[in-house]
TrEMBL record:
<dbReference type="InterPro" id="IPR009976">
    <property type="entry name" value="Sec10-like"/>
</dbReference>
<dbReference type="GO" id="GO:0006893">
    <property type="term" value="P:Golgi to plasma membrane transport"/>
</dbReference>
<feature type="domain" description="Exocyst complex component Sec10-like alpha-helical bundle">
    <location>
        <begin position="38"/>
        <end position="618"/>
    </location>
</feature>
<dbReference type="Pfam" id="PF07393">
    <property type="entry name" value="Sec10_HB"/>
</dbReference>
<dbReference type="GO" id="GO:0006887">
    <property type="term" value="P:exocytosis"/>
</dbReference>
<protein>
    <submittedName>
        <fullName>Exocyst complex component SEC10</fullName>
    </submittedName>
</protein>
<dbReference type="GO" id="GO:0000145">
    <property type="term" value="C:exocyst"/>
</dbReference>
<dbReference type="InterPro" id="IPR048627">
    <property type="entry name" value="Sec10_HB"/>
</dbReference>
Length: 625
């Protein structure tokens, strides 16, 4: 018989072997065969003894656990400690520690259901990130307070409190928190994402970010309370691995979904606006307006805000600089695609207005052999086409201005918010910069084509005004001694007034090199158009003076272009106009020292009304050759 005594329990005796020690003495006197049989019998008896001992230990442990539970119910820390000390001899106390943790009320089903209601709200209601954040904060605070209270009890009861705290916190992070996250974060399908009416992918991402951030804070609180040797940070991170595996793809899909929803919204607004104004369906431009809404800086700012939000989530989920840079680059590429597509579409729509105005002008061009009635109708239609051209010019310049502002916002966002995230990784910043330039190049190409159309629109109206307002007698005033008219001609006044009015939007809509190139090209085209126009007229000395007055008017206007080469061209026109004023014998020395304008001067001399009568061709032939 073997006697075991566990204080404060009663003495417990149990029978280990069915034989006695005397049997062993008898066994030693047996033959070899008998010894073998005896050994087999002893081995079998030992197995039975071990089995009996194990059963007894299990029974004893269960009885101790029952008494431990009873003491726990009474909050009798002294008795709990005594039983816990004895139970620590059984499997190092693991069963006792797990048993204690498993029976904590904080893991009851009712408590976990209350967690879901606190965080998610009423069943079937769409959770909002702000409410979820508040709910998680309350829930995690309650759990932390409970764990802190349990820590005090555990320290007073268990011989190895750190081990118990490790089991307790592990149970929290493997049972209570995951069950809530399963209800809160349901991985969406990227093929058939949830519709925007139900929050879309962005709602899932916002809830994911809130849950991740709050759970990270919670893990730090648990660490401060105490969790033994448990890797609480790693365990917390593992809760979100299934979601982080598809995170970047989900951000891409979400940004595309947001963009599509925004474009649908803008098209609906445009359609309602067109229907209310009665303009829908009148032209190709109406359909283009629906597919490519006007550029709005506010919309581009919204694109950037989406991207900024997505980038903040990248920073939250990406722990390594290389991973963060890769995620940021993917998200930024989405923004580049959105801005490029949006502003390019807006510029294309504005270009269509210019194209329609050009078609109207072509439609009403008439020959010279028409009746007055037809000519009057055509003139009225031409004026309407000119008004359409002026309106489309302003619309395009406004689109270019908004396009420039949008690109500036994009560049500022890249410099202020993304550069610091990309620079730590070799080549990441340069690659994104190049990608941004490439994405904007398409819009730049459309803008350049549109600006060329703007020049064509302006010059078409200038030529129309010159042809309709310029009278053949404007530069052939009679030399009757009456004081000459020093005012600009009606044609000149109309052209300058038109240019001043229409180019106002160009001065405000264009900047830098774009503005300089546009105005320089327009100045060259205006100079050429005036030369061609004057080639159709004849001039006497009084008309020459009036021409110089017109040239001065044009020159003063183009000076606002800040293009020195254009100023020089109009100054030379003023010099050339002297060929109409001086006497025939003074023409020879007029251009000495200025050989560069002799060719234009020769053509102008032929426009003098006395060119033939004064036989200027033969008189000046020796000067030009």
């Amino acid at each position: 018989y073997v006697t075991l005594r566990f204080f404060p329990l009663d003495i417990i005796t149990f029978h280990l072997f069915s034989g006695s020690f005397a049997d062993e003495d008898i066994g030693r006197q047996k033959t070899t065969v008998s010894s073998a049989v005896g050994n087999a019998t002893s081995s079998k008896g030992l197995e039975v003894a071990i089995s009996n001992l194990q059963e007894y230990c299990n029974e004893l442990e269960n009885r101790l656990l029952a008494r431990f539970d009873a003491a726990t119910q009474k909050r009798d820390l002294t008795r709990m400690g005594e039983y816990a000390k004895i139970l620590s001899q059984f499997n190092r106390g693991t069963s006792a520690m797990q048993h204690y943790v498993g029976l904590r009320p904080m893991f009851d089903v009712e408590v976990m259901n209350a967690d879901a209601k606190l965080v998610l709200g009423d069943e079937g209601a769409q959770p909002s990130p702000s409410n979820v954040a508040k709910g998680l904060s309350s829930m995690f605070k309650e759990i932390t307070d409970t764990v802190r209270k349990e820590a005090a009890t555990i320290a007073a009861v268990f011989p190895s409190p750190k081990d118990v705290m490790s089991i307790l916190v592990q149970r929290v992070l493997e049972d209570r928190v995951p069950k809530l996250l399963e209800k809160l974060l349901q991985k969406p399908s990227l093929v058939n994402p949830p519709p925007m009416e139900e929050g879309g992918l962005v709602l899932y991402l916002r809830l994911l970010a809130v849950a991740y951030e709050k759970t990270q804070e919670f893990s730090k609180d648990l660490r401060s309370v105490g969790c033994g040797d448990l890797d609480v940070e790693g365990l917390t991170e593992s809760l979100f691995l299934p979601h982080k595996d598809i995170y970047v793809e989900c951000e891409q899909a979400s940004l595309k979904q947001l963009y599509k929803a925004k474009m649908d919204e803008l098209r609906t607004e445009n359609q309602l606006s067109s229907e209310s104004s009665g303009t829908i369906g009148r032209s190709k431009g109406a359909s283009m307006a629906l597919s490519n809404p006007e550029i709005s800086v506010a919309v581009v700012t919204e694109f950037v805000r989406w991207n900024e939000e997505a980038t903040s989530r990248c920073s939250l989920f990406s722990l390594q600089p290389a991973t963060l840079a890769a995620s940021v680059k993917v998200v930024f590429t989405c923004l580049l695609d959105q801005v490029s597509q949006y502003i390019t579409g807006g510029l294309e729509r504005a270009r269509d207005g210019l194209t329609e105005a050009a078609a109207l002008r072509e439609k009403h061009l008439l020959g010279t052999s028409v009746s007055r009635r037809v000519a009057a109708a055509a003139a009225s239609a031409a004026e309407n086409a000119a008004a359409a051209g002026e309106s489309s010019f302003r619309s395009f310049m406004l689109a270019v201005q908004r396009c420039g502002s949008s690109v500036a916002i994009l560049q500022q966002y890249f410099v202020n918010s993304l550069s610091r995230l990309l620079l730590p990784v070799d080549g990441a910043h340069a690659a994104s910069s190049e990608e941004m330039a490439t994405a904007m190049s398409r819009a730049e190409n459309v803008a350049c084509k549109g600006l060329q159309q703007c020049i064509e629109t302006v010059m078409a109206e200038v030529e129309r005004l010159l042809s309709t307002e310029q009278k053949a007698t404007d530069y052939r005033s009679p030399d009757d001694g009456i004081i000459p008219d020093h005012r600009p001609t009606s044609a000149c006044a109309c052209v300058v007034a038109y240019l001043s009015r229409v180019l106002e939007s160009a001065f405000t809509g264009l900047e830098g090199l774009n503005k300089q190139a546009f105005l320089t090209e327009l100045g060259n085209r205006l100079h050429k158009a005036l030369l061609n126009h004057w080639q159709k007229l004849t001039f006497n000395p009084s008309g020459g003076l009036r021409l110089k007055r017109d040239i001065t008017e044009y020159g003063e206007f183009v000076r606002s272009f800040n293009a020195p080469q254009i100023d020089e061209k109009f100054e030379q026109l003023g010099i050339i106009a002297n060929v109409f004023i001086v006497a025939p014998e003074s023409l020879g020395p007029l251009f000495e020292g200025t050989p560069s304008i002799k060719k234009d001067a020769q053509r102008f001399i032929q426009l003098r009304d006395d060119y033939k009568s004064a036989k200027l061709a033969s008189r000046l032939s020796s000067l030009w050759h």
